Structure formats: C-alpha cells, structure tokens
Structures
1.
Amino acid sequence: MRAILLTIGDEILIGQILNSNAQWMSDELTGLGVQVTQHITVGDHEAEIVQALDSVVPKADFLIVGGGLGPTHDDITMKVLSHYFETPLEYDADWLAQLEAFFKSRNRPMTENNKKQAYLLKGATRIDNDCGTAAGQHFTADGTQIFVVPGVPHEMKSMMKRYILPFIATKNPSERILKQTLLTTGIGESALATRCEPFVQKVKARSDLTLAFLPSTTQVKLRLQMKSADANARKEFDALISELIEYCGKDFFGTDPTSIEQIIFDRLKQNHETLALAESCTGGYISHRLTQIPGISAVLKGSMVVYQTELKTKEVGISEAFLEKNGAVSEASVRAMAESIRQKWNSTYGLATTGYLGPTGGDERAPLGTVWIALSSKTRTESSEFHFEANRERAKERATQAALDLLRRTLS
Amino acid sequence: MRAILLTIGDEILIGQILNSNAQWMSDELTGLGVQVTQHITVGDHEAEIVQALDSVVPKADFLIVGGGLGPTHDDITMKVLSHYFETPLEYDADWLAQLEAFFKSRNRPMTENNKKQAYLLKGATRIDNDCGTAAGQHFTADGTQIFVVPGVPHEMKSMMKRYILPFIATKNPSERILKQTLLTTGIGESALATRCEPFVQKVKARSDLTLAFLPSTTQVKLRLQMKSADANARKEFDALISELIEYCGKDFFGTDPTSIEQIIFDRLKQNHETLALAESCTGGYISHRLTQIPGISAVLKGSMVVYQTELKTKEVGISEAFLEKNGAVSEASVRAMAESIRQKWNSTYGLATTGYLGPTGGDERAPLGTVWIALSSKTRTESSEFHFEANRERAKERATQAALDLLRRTLS
C-alpha cells in the first residue's frame, strides 16, 4: 500500500521551519508496511493546494494532508478541501462545545477566530484533538483514504497514534517491510560498496530487497529493506543481515539506533575499566560526546583539554624541550599525552588527540589537517596518524570519531 | 520569480533523515526575493522521478534537484535526467582527474564506482564540488533554469553559495526582501513577545513587514522581513532593526550568523584576556563550543573536565571534607572550582559548572535538574543557580548556554 504526505504551510516554503512531521509520519507508516511514495509541500494558497491535490489524489491508498487548520485568516485548508471535494462545511455543535471547554480549562478566552474551527467537512469522520483546537478529518475520495491533521507536531502525532495509524493497521497489509540499519565507521562509502559488491549484486537480482548506503561525515550507514508477505520472513531477513555484517567486517560497530559512545560505555562498564582523556585539537568534543550517555561517570574520569601549549607542559608532563624536539603535533607528543593522563588519573585507558585543524596552522613536520591519536593501556600504547580536509568543524568531528573508534576496536 | 525544490532519496521517504536541505535552500532563496512554491520529495525510482519532473519543470523559473548523485547503484539521478531531457551522459576527463586528485590527497583508494561520477550531462555547466566527489550541473529546459546538487548538506551548501545563489542574484528580482535575524538568550519566547508588544503591533499594521519569533532550546531568534521595491529601503529597515534591538535589551547578543562563542572570543581577544574552564556537568561541551571558533587558542587556555568526583579533589583543590560539607552540586563548590582553575592556569577568568542533569541523581540540597555556574575574575566571583528540566541533552545545552551567557554579559 502506498501513501503520500501533503503539507500545507508558507512557513515551510520560506525556510522558517523544518518539515519534521513528514519524517515522523514516514517512519511510522513505513513500519506498518506502507510505502511512502511522495512528500509534497505547498503554500497556503488555493490554486497551489488544488494543483497538488490534482497530482496526488488518485495515486495513493492513503493521503495525509497536514497544516493550515489554525484559527487565523491564512489557514485555508478546510475551505479548499470543501471546494475541491464539493463537500460543504458544516457547523459541528459538539466540537464547538469541546472547544469552549478547552479554553475554559486553560483559563484562556476563546476568540471569534476559534469558532471557525467548528466548521468541518460534511460527512467526514471527525478526529478529535486532545491537545489543541483544530479537529482532524477522515474521508474517502476516488478510492483514496484521506486524513487531515494539524501542523502542530504534538497534535498531529496524537491523532496519528490514536486514530490514523490504528486505522491503517486494520487494513492489514499483507505485505510488511522489514528494515534494519547497520552502522560502520572508519571506511568510506565507495570502499565499503566495493567490499559488499557480491551482496549488492544479490540485492539487485531480487525485487523484494533494497540496500542503501547512507554516508555522513563520520560514518556510513547501510540500510537493508525486505518486502514480504510471509510472516516467517524475519528469519531469512536476519540471515541476510548477518551476511551483510560479515562483509562490513571490523568497520561494523552496531545497528541503529546505537552509537559508538554507547558501545564504548557498555564495554568499559562490563570490564570494570576506566577512561581518561587528554584532548588538544578535539577541544573537549570527545568528552562531550561520551557525557551524553547517562551513567558514563562510572567509567569516564574526565578530560584534560590542554588547548594552549603551556598546559601540555603543565598538565601532561611534556617538557618544552620535548615539544621543541618533536613538535606539538607528532606521534611522540600524542603518545606522551595518552600515557601521562592514564597514569596521572590512574585509569585503565588514556586516549589523546593533537592536530592542526585549521583554517590556518601546520608546520613542516605536520601540515594542516594532520591529526595524531593515541590510546594507552598498561601493556601498550598505539598511535595513528590521520590527514583530514582543511575544514575545522568536519575535521574535528572526524578526529573525534577516529579517536572513539580506536578505543572501540581495542575494546572489541 | 519562483523556485521549486525536488529532492530525490528513499532515505527521506522512509523517515530515516530529515529534509533539512529544503529548509536551508528555501531560506536562502527567500532572501533573494525568490518565492519557493513547492517542495517535492520522491524516491530513487525512475518512474517517480519522471512523474515529479513532469509536474514541476514548466512551473518555475528555477528548479533545484538534490540527491542521488553518489557512486553506488541506488544513485540514479543523472541517468534519469539524461533520459528525461534526452541528453546523453558524457565522460568528463577533467572531472575524473579532479576525482583522482581528491582521493590521492586523502590517501584513499578511488574505486570503480567513483568513475561513474565522471559521467555528466552533455552541454550542461559543471558545478565543481570542493568537498566531495559528486559534481553539480546547471542547464536550461523549457525556460526553467535547472540546477542539480548532491544530497550531502555541506556539498550542496558549498555549490549553492559559490555558484547557484550568485547566479540567481544576477537575475535581479525587482522586489527585494530585506531580512535580519536578531539573537537573544536568557529570556523565554512569551516574555520576549510581551516586551516587544508595541513593535509587534506596528508590524501587524503594515503589510510589508513580518516578524517571527523562533524559539529553540537555548535562544529565541527574532526575524524581521521587509518587502520593498525601493532601493533606499535599507535605511528604514536598519532603523526598524535598531528599534527592535532596544526592545530586546541585554538579552540581545548579536545578529545572525554570529554566535555567543564568537562574541566571547572577540571581546577576550580585544581585551588581551584569557579564559580557563572547569566543567563537571557540561562534560566538555563549553570547551567544544568555544573551540569551534578559529583562533580561540589565543584566549582559551583549556578545560579541566572533572567528571568523576575524585578529580575535583585532585585537580581543582576541593577537599573531600569540603565536598562532604557542601555537596558536589552547590554554590560553594562551583565558586571554588572557578577560582581554583583561574589561579591554577593563571587566566583572567575562570568559568565553572556543576549539576545533576539526569536522568537520575540529585540529592536533598540539589534536586535533579539543579545546575550551579560560577565566573571568577581577580576582583570578584559571581555565581548563579539554575533548574532545568530532567532531559539530559537539553539540560546540558541549557547549562552550557547559561555559562557562556554569564561570561558574555560580564564582558559586555
């Protein structure tokens, strides 16, 4: 079954707000085995709404129209739907009574504008709004089930959960969509695609499977989907996922929605181990990411962000002569930082970063974009050199991810 | 002039990612006086892309097609455009050479897949990608200027800024939209709206002005827009902005696109002053935000992220007896942290945070959500208590913003 989402609202077209509703609805519908084939957003103008309705109404089993149900003059969705489907708006005394109660319960005056919200499409089923004043609607036209919802996210979500999603679920699509997303890091999209080539070929040969490579600055996600009418498909799907994980090798670190920091936390906690950070170029970002995880204080001692060079001497025991000899951005320096912080704070691991992220900086030994990372434990210290692009924010993200990934691989 | 945005990508239709590109592009185009009339998103399927092109190509002056330019099998945008516009794909040796250089500079192998990205629409103008491998394209069809850009946000933005927006600006729409966004922090949306009420009334009385309140977790932006065909409108607009800034008072800290950290950097640098941080509950996030600013090492010594309690004793001189007496989350503790780090690292200012962000924690003296912030200088130490909601991520954001804002107000 197919669904189309039609959003009505100037505020989206002028870039004032993000259309996060479309993402949420798509995710929910996909989970019910419905294929969302189009998102379309138009402004609060009759001609544009009509044109959009012309292009979508007969093409889907479900059409969700969102936005433009407010009390002000620029909210015209109901009026336009009334014209388009040649259905009059009818005064709904029951809904008006609920609106009056709504305002009374909040000690707010009800304006004349709000009374407009009691005019609803004749013959349509009203979908009550339990946290706002705009009622939803449900009706059928040309074989398409049409749902009308407000643009306010929590009002829309409440209607979806209470009425629309359960309704769609009863249509009981025989075809379900199984989906899972694998997370990888430390490998680029192309290299990963090359490594997974036999699997990609298998996917191409089957119409029930789709595989997408979704790269971002720090990781590549692999999303596998399988359409199936068979209730026992889960077993086959799980086997395919296992096969794909094999192809990803050590660059695979988990399945959505986990994170590399969550995995690090889980492993350190399980092992009763602790971590201390000495950050230079990452500037506290490793520490920030790790401290997003609730309970991390059980394993993370803290981070020494030694941003100015003098602190490297004062806090992680690297003498000026040593810095002079090796340079602040060097393998020798980063190893000394990792070992020093581990000993100073008496942790199982010491993780350190140093680099030139730009937009200026760098020297003969370490050009702009050079980052050194080291991980020290009682038995050994390992270090890696990276060269990132000269974009400060992205280089910092990549350096942070590389540091966390070095630790993740060691803990695996 | 009118523009339509066509996004191609299954990952948006299944709700995996938000279409933030559409918002960004809409905002930029609106600023050039272009009216964005439609956003449309379809999947990576030829029939759907063709149908969307049918519905939009003749209807706008500009069409921006985004997504599906990657190196893998599911990226079919170029192939479909080639079919639809009956224009062959042609091997671009120059772009291939740039791709090879791109991979070489990053020490990454170039795969066969990437070679596909050197096949571009014959006769179209190539828009170089300075941070990725997918080239953009620009051509004209049926009187519509068509731009093709990658879906990766920073690659798209770079092409928009370097080529597409300047091109559209030369088309010189007679009606310009003047817009400016004021940044405030430390005040809620309703309180700010109440304070600005006389200005809001003035805006309502004029059809050429719009004012929007845009709240987020840490700040409220105020965007003022004025439509005008008059080249001298700038002067009037600037006067309106000055008036609005007066209403905002000390909660106003700058105009978009500045940031509170940029303002702190500029003032510290100007004053030849330095800053040292002692972070507990903010976990390195203050340091991370400040180190996003190029050149910050001139004023930021570093940050001592004392996440575990033992480090507060070891590194910022708070004895166990002191902690026992006052509690780790207390005014006495945070003042001691700020003073201690300032003296230890010999900086002009010491800024410190401590708190219980949740989802669990808190004690009798400081319930969950309590955050203490202190700023110490040679002459005085000031401290403030906050109570944030029990959502870890948002409370951390708010605590970080409050700490930066305390420093910003002191420096003003």
2.
Amino acid sequence: MVLNPVTGAFLDGLRATLPETCFRPIAPRYLSEPRGFYAGQAGCLLLPSSAGEVALILRHCNAARVGVVPYGGGTGLVGGQVMPKGAPAPVVLSLERLDSIEKPDLQDNTLVVGAGAILADVQAVAAAAARLFPLSLASEGSCRIGGNLASNAGGVQVLRYGNARALCLGLEAVLPEGRIWQGLKRLRKDNTGYDLRDLLIGSEGTLGVITRAVLRLFPQPEQHLTAFLQIRDPRAAIDLLARCQARFGGLVSAFELIDRTGFEFLQETLPSLRRPFAAPGKWMVLLEIGAGTDFPAQTVLESVLEAAFDAGLMHDAVIAQSEAQREAFWAVRERIPEANRLIGAISSHDISVPLGQLPEMIRKGAGVVARFGDLRVNCFGHVGDGNLHYNVYPPKGAHRADFSHLRDDIKRAIHDLVDTLGGSFSAEHGIGRLKRDDLSRYGDPAKLAAMRAIKTALDPNGIMNPGVIFAPS
Amino acid sequence: MVLNPVTGAFLDGLRATLPETCFRPIAPRYLSEPRGFYAGQAGCLLLPSSAGEVALILRHCNAARVGVVPYGGGTGLVGGQVMPKGAPAPVVLSLERLDSIEKPDLQDNTLVVGAGAILADVQAVAAAAARLFPLSLASEGSCRIGGNLASNAGGVQVLRYGNARALCLGLEAVLPEGRIWQGLKRLRKDNTGYDLRDLLIGSEGTLGVITRAVLRLFPQPEQHLTAFLQIRDPRAAIDLLARCQARFGGLVSAFELIDRTGFEFLQETLPSLRRPFAAPGKWMVLLEIGAGTDFPAQTVLESVLEAAFDAGLMHDAVIAQSEAQREAFWAVRERIPEANRLIGAISSHDISVPLGQLPEMIRKGAGVVARFGDLRVNCFGHVGDGNLHYNVYPPKGAHRADFSHLRDDIKRAIHDLVDTLGGSFSAEHGIGRLKRDDLSRYGDPAKLAAMRAIKTALDPNGIMNPGVIFAPS
C-alpha cells in the first residue's frame, strides 16, 4: 500500500466539508515526543470536535490514501504519536477538542468522557463526586484518555483496579473506513459478539480513532494507609505482598519496589526532596492500602509488618501519619522518572515477568549489564504486576553519550533475558515505532500473522498510524 | 463459502495422520443441548489430546472445506455446540481429553489448565492450594474451561472478580488455518500488539480453538458473611449495594436479586428445599462478603443493615450463622434455574441494563408482559452486573406448549425494551445459533461489519463453527 502525502488539492477538499475551526497551523509540540528519539512531520493538523468530523476526515483520507496520525497528549514513550521524516506527509489528528467530561452517573458508577479529556481532569471530576477513577501515572497532568486507551495505559494501581482496558466499559470510535461504532455501552456483562472494545484498546491508533469512552468509577476508599519499608531483597517483596494480600483481601492498591539507586539519583538531581530514610538499604517498598474506616487497617498492617520483621523479610518501616507524609512518600516514587531523565539512561526497558521470576530477572539482569562494563542499574516498578522499569546508566560522572554505541546490544541482551523468563519486552508502553523490531523478534508468529490479517481487514488501505506496530509497507 | 460434508475419503485422510485414540463413535449427548431447541448432526467425532492434533485436524478441514464444531461440556444455552440438520455434516471436535490441570503457581497465583478441564475440578484444585478460582455458575459440575472462555462465562462472582475474560491471563489456541498461537503468558501487564486473547475469548469457537489457558487465582477469603434480605423493591437493592460497597470496599462478592416467584416455583417443584423466609415479600437479596478475619465484617454488616432498615430499604434479614446455613442459602439461589425448567418458561431472556435502569426494566417489563395475557414473570439475577434472567411463564396450572405461539413476540417486545434502556439482549450466554437474528437486529452496524471482516480475515474458508454468530453463507 503506497500512501500519498497531504497536498493542496487534498486540503481544499477537506476545507469544503469541515468547519474552519478544525484547521490550525501545526505547532512544534505535535512533532516531537518526550524522549527525543523521533522528529515528526505533518502535512496538516486537524482538530475535529465530534465523531462525525473524525469520520469525514477518515473517509477523505481513505479516498486519497493519505496517512493519519492520531494525537492525544503526546506523552507516549514509543513514538506512536509522530511520523518521522521520509514517509509521505500525513494528517495529524488531534483529539484535544473532544474533551468533554459528563456528570458522573453515581448509580452506575460510570463516567462518559471525550478522548481529549486530560486524565487528571477526569480523576478530579470523579473525586468531586466522591468516586475514584483509579488510572494513575506520571504524565496524568497532560496525557489524554484517548491515548491512555489506545495504549492500554497501566500505572501504579493496576494491582487492585486493572489497566486502562479493565477501566473502560464502552467506546465510541471511528473505524478506518469512516464508519462510526456507537459502542458507548455502560454494561458490566454484554456477550453480543466479538470484543471490539478490547481490540481497539491497545491498538495504538492503527485500527481506528477512539472518540469517547464510558469509564468505570469506584467508591473512594475512606482511609489510605501508606508505608515505606526497607526490605531484605526482591524475593522478600513478593513474600510480603502475598502476606498483605492474604490479610487485606483485595485492598492493597499499590506495591512499588524501589532500588537504592533511585534514592541516589534523587539525591544527585533533586537534593531538596525529602526522603523517608537517611540511610536506605538496597531495596525498598512503597505500599498503600485503601479501605473503609471500619477496617482496623493500621493494626493489621502493624501485625503483618511485625511478622515480616520476625521472618527477616524487612528491617525498617515508616507508616505515613498524615496526608502530607503520604504525599511526601509518593513524591519520592513519582519523581524517580524525572531524576532518571536528568541522569540520562543509556537504555530503558519497560518489562514484565511472571511474579515469581522477578528476583531472577533482577539477579540475572545485573549479570547481563556487568558484561558491558561498570554501569549502573536503576530498577523500580510495580511488584504486583511483575512490571519493572529496568534502566541502565553510565558510571557516576560519565555521560550517556559516551555509551550510546552500547544501547542496542544492552537492549537486546535484556530483552533476550526477559524472553527466556516468559516475560514481555513492553509491559505498559506499547510498541509504537520504537519496539517494532522487538515485536517481530519476540512476538509469536501465529499471533503476528493474525494481527496483520486483522489490520488488513479493518484498514485495507493502511492509512491508520502507518509505521506503528507494523513496518511501513 | 460452500462447505463440504465429512466423507469416507476425508476420514481416511484423517486416519492416516491422527492416532486411533482420536476417533470415537458419536454419542447422542454430542448432538443435543440443554434446552432442546436444536437437534445436532455430525460427520464424525474427534477427540484430540494436544494442540498439535487440533492443528492437524483444522488444516485437514481447511483443505477439504469441512466445518468444525468445537465441543466443551455441552452446557451452552444458545445452541453454539450443535450443528442442526440441513447443513453439510461437520466434524465435532471435543476437547474433553485436553483436561490437564497443572499444579497451581502460588507465587504468581496462576493455574495452567487444558480446555477440557471441568470447572468444578479447577475450583477444587485451587481450593486445595488455599486459593480461589472465582468463576462460579450453575453448570460448574460439567461445563469445561474451554467453553467457559469461548463464551466468556459470567456467574455469581463477576461483581468482585470479573467474568471469564478477566480471569484469564494467557491462551494457547489453534487458529482456523491450523497455526498454533503459543500465548500461554502469565503476565499482568503485556502491551505487545493486539489483544488476541480477548478477541478469542467470547468468540464462541468461530475464530479458533482454545486448547490451554493460564487462569488467575486469588487468596481465599478467610471468612464469608452471607445474608438473605427482604427488601422494599428493586431500587432499594441498588441503594443497598452502594451502601455495602462503600463500607466493604471491594469485598462484596455476590449480590443476587430474587423475586418471590422464584420461591413459589421452588415450593411448587422442589418442596423439600429449606427456604429462609416462611412468608417472603415480593423482593429478596442474597448477598455475600468475603473478607479476612481482621475485618469486623459481621458488626459492619449489622450496622449497614440497621441503617438500611431505618431508611425503609428493607424489612427483614437473616445472616447465615454456619457454613451449613450459608450453603442452604445458596442452594435456594442455585436451584431456581432447575425449578424454572420444571415449570417451563414460554420465553427466557438473559439481559443486562445499566445498573440505574434496573428498576425501570422490571417496572416496564411487567407492562410489556401484561400485554400478552395473565402470564407470570420470574426475574432474578446479578444486581451488581445489571444482569437479569428475565423469564416468562404461563399462568399456574397451564402448560407452556399452549403459549409457545407467543414466544417470538414476547422475546421481541422484551428485547426492544432492553434496547431502549441501553442494555444487552445477551449478558452472559452469547449469540450461538439462537440469538443470531437478535444480533443483526440490535447490533451496531459498524461493529457487525468489523466482526465480519475479522471473521473472514482469520477464517477465510468459514470452517469454524459455521452458523454461530453469523448466518451460514
């Protein structure tokens, strides 16, 4: 399928059918992505305000064989939101004007939002109605729901509430040939045909454009119990998580593993940030329980921790005694990615492994990295999900540019290890343009063939986000 | 696509590649289904013992253009498991020999099972390892995991744990052209391409054959609190559920609405069954909380019920004081379907509506049914999921055969109502052969077109469960 670039005649045709408000000169932010791996290009920027306008655009692009790059908050980490130079100039389709957030339905515990709604705004609308929308991640102040769904975003509360896929009941979406799927159902059970919703979620804009969604809300836990622990080693983290889950049922909402290297990076780059331990050990856990006030959560947690202390699983713990202290604990976790960026990774990996393999991953990963020299590893993540952000850095004082020739080999070695452990080379971030080669290398051939068949069936002209997931043809 | 019947030459070809143990004369049970709507036919019965053998069979069927009907426990309620006479005689492919259940992985909380494993056996293996596999439904003694996944089964604990789709982490499956997808991942987060797992789950054997699955396990709640309530009306049930969820967090595992008609049917057909109320009111709720022993569950429940009593939401409650009493409560709920069968419905409906619309559904539904005469409605179901089994019966003493001419019109009228309320005409049971016409009538046209495109892409010869979901071509 050879695509055409946006031309004057193409734009004239669009102007004849779309309101003038859909057109805006393209600004640099639409052509860049957070890690600076890709510089984008575009033939035009379109900002539709309804599914009907999106449908008009896709029909027009289909007729002209022009590529479409859907654009949400621009925070994706795999280059799914930019079309690199070299390909025919595409339409960049920003969903930012589709930013409505309806009134929460408190009986259904649902909330209907436009794809352009910013995640933090959605959280705030839910909170104002005494409800929780649990999707929570570092970029929540600027990422948009459409992008969260297109990439099946994860974050810190997946352990209890699931990923973006589990938080969405229904979708309105425009399919590649311009048909609108009215799938804004708010049902907990609906077995009427193939699961198109879950197919579009996580398809990274290659199978259509999500325009609205019905999201699930939850009761706000009346109390939060947040603790920072110093633990023996990663295996102790798994044991401790199991103990917490057994005593707290499904009420453990976060269980984050943090490496001392993370603390050192914070000290180095953000020295004014308060840290819970003066002399941190090698491994820490930040855990949070959300419960009703009837639950004697602090007493139970103290008893779990006492038993864990006696069993040698941990040697120190601080339980937040105020909301301010809770926020300070979370600030440590949430600013580690910023510290990481300031240090500058040689190679970053967003991996998951079966929970029981997590200690093995950390142990063997250290061996793999050591083969490349005296490098530093900062590995932190969501223990309950088996998800580690496993990042490799130059020695202290050195600059990553001097090690960039190692990036591909390090990445390959880490991903090979993950693969032998039955894991995933992309737990949260998706494939985009960055991990296409990993997908062909590690993906199951039968699944890849089925994916290609589905892509061709739904997008026969290949206009949707060309070059994402599949190599451009 | 015109399919061919199984012939002697076709069978000779199969015998040359498959072990003799895969062949067995077909018994009547493979050709019937629980409601007796369809009488099946088959060209042969095959019982493969591995994904490799399934792949051989599908390749052979593809080459000869012979249809394949996958067969699990045979308990499906929409005729998905039988090929009615008139069509070319198909292969019936029973997964019963693929019934392995591995040792539970207690760190991952996962369990790998073959598609032929019986649900109750899976539950038992989990329980023996002090874990819970929460899928629970009336036919659990004979339904098989492959069928549960193919139909995305629901049941009584969806409220807390989700449906079959939410309980499965990975699949091994044979795609229609005979490729084996090795997707037995046991990962909580894995964003590497399209969600083929959730597409196959719920596709009712039309997109391939599931051969193995990785299931999620949960900690066993240390205590169960089970109560039978007499409530004011269906709206009170919704209010009460919200109060329970606010106080118990995510620990409410079942919340079943029961109509007095259900009690009357039990009295009529199974008079020896113990019932919790001598003089039941019109509406009852059976609720269950599963919690750790640290949670003062009984005290909290008593306080919730006291407040609900004061608010006029309910007027009587019995909390089970022993495991025997808990089982007796559940026996009432679980034997209602049996009583229903003994009475004999004119028309049964497995519907869901948005939670807030449930009272409206019940109120307007009564009006719809009254138009057809003095009929009885037994409506019971899973309040938290907005899912009602809404069944219509002849007047006491009359026989359903005398009313069968009304079936189609009643069904249409009820489904029309459900549709105007934003609901689903098949919450749990799927489409099969029984609800194909409903799907074309109520389904979204863009979704239907996408489904057809996916079906053609993955099964170009249309051999997989022909006539299920889509009309035979």
3.
Amino acid sequence: MPTEDELRATLIRYTEAFSAGDADAWVGLFTEDATVEDPVGSPKHVGRDAIRAFFEAGHAMADKITLTIKEGPVVCGSEGSFAMEVMSEMGGATIVLTAIDVMTFDDAGAITSQRAFWSPSGIRTL
Amino acid sequence: MPTEDELRATLIRYTEAFSAGDADAWVGLFTEDATVEDPVGSPKHVGRDAIRAFFEAGHAMADKITLTIKEGPVVCGSEGSFAMEVMSEMGGATIVLTAIDVMTFDDAGAITSQRAFWSPSGIRTL
C-alpha cells in the first residue's frame, strides 16, 4: 500500500490534471473498473471510458475549470478526502461551488472510486 | 425526507453541540443503531450508548474542543459532508487538525452513520 503522503499526492494530481484539462493524466489515476459518482446520488460512471466521457462533458461545458483544494487532502488507510472550490469560467461568467470528494484506492494507489458531494444550491457567481 | 437545508442545519448543530460539550444534544442527532467511524478505518462505535462513550472519551482528553466548519456542509439526498477545523485545548497547549466528516441520514433526518477523515499526521500546534 502506498504511504499516506503518496495518496495525498495522487489527490493533488487529481485536481491539477483536471484543472489542466489533461484527460490522459486524470483518467490514468483511476483503475480500469473504477467508478465516479459525481454528484453523490447520481448514476455512477463505471470504467475508464465512461470516466473519460464524464471528464470531456465537464470540460465541454466551460472554457476553463479550476479545482483549488481548500481543506485536506486527508488520507485514512486506503481512503481519502478533500474539500475544494470548483471555479468554472463560461463565456463572461465565472461560477464557483464547494465540492467534497471522497476516494478509495487499490493496493497500487490507483483510485477505485470517487464520490463528489456538491449541490446546485451551492453554486454562486464570483 | 427532510430538505437539504434541514440536513445542513443538522450538521451545523452537530458541530455546535459537540463544541458546547452537550452530550445529550449531540447523541440525540443519531439514530439508536447509528455507527461512528472516527477516524475512517478504526473500529466503529455502534449504537447511541457507544457513541455517547466516544463523545465522553474525546471530551475527557481536552479542556475544550471546538469544531469550526470550514467548507460545506454539502448535502446530496440522504448524505452530507463538511470539512472542519478541530481545535483542542489541553492544559497550556492548543492543537488543531482538519477533519472531513461524511454522514448518512434516515428518512426522519437523524444521522445513521458518521465517518470522519482525519490523520494524526495532520495535527499541528496553534
């Protein structure tokens, strides 16, 4: 099992690759059969192809999306979490929301599941 | 099912009752058979009696514990999460750490499970 610091670094890379629009780097953090539930309660995206499609759909909606970690990452064994600000620039508008992500990892440190807590009610303009 | 705002209010009360040292109010937010996994990966405290014992053990270790929400609460359906600073005053020392809590609720809005992400490695002096 990777160390706590290594898993924290993976979660930081998760936000950096997403913000950079680097689909290959971002999808590469997941296992082949990983799941993404974003937001929590919505149907899961299962497997890397579906996760890549989720990434692309998100980036197609905005000119730029920037994830900024606000609290954490905190890692406990094979699970981790962090709170972030999600800033989306769309045309002349910039909207932000708070999201809290919870991930599980496999023994090699790849992400096996992601669950993202966020709510449309939390969206605000900057 | 309670509204998103009602569940957010419960999570705020959770931090307020804990900070006030009000065991009755805090334990009363949970269902009779609720579970507390604090930190994530440790054995669960199962049921209100065990949850009260966990509360009392935590408060016995410090003169004062103050929970301050930093991000969220964010509620998705019957689940919610928030990031907080936990400040513990013990004698002449004050230590803080970041914790991210994830809760599930029953249809009446009582907490059925709590999982708290925090790590000893995140403890710092103030």
